[in-house]
Amino acid sequence: MNTNPKSTPSDDVHLIVAKDEEVVIEHYPEDWIAFVLFWALAIIVFLQFFTRYIMNDSLSWTEEIARYGLMSLASSAGPWSRARRPISRSSCCRI
Description:
Distance between the termini: 68 Å
Helix content: 40-55%
Oligomer: single chain
Largest sheet: none
Number of helices: 2
Order of helices and strands: HH
């Protein structure tokens, strides 16, 4: 057992110094549109489930709205993600 007080490291000595960069979160209008479309779709699908299986009386419009909402969300997410982060030539498939 070492009882020498000079061998203990002081409190101000750090072996690893890590500095994090500042995180910048950018909110684009497309993000808010996708956010609203996603949650509207989730609420409509839950409403469809609730009326069909819990109340045994399905609303006729929920299935069509959910189908078209999913298609609009999927077709709009592709161009938005492509505009945000373009694909470089080196990451593309080479023929």
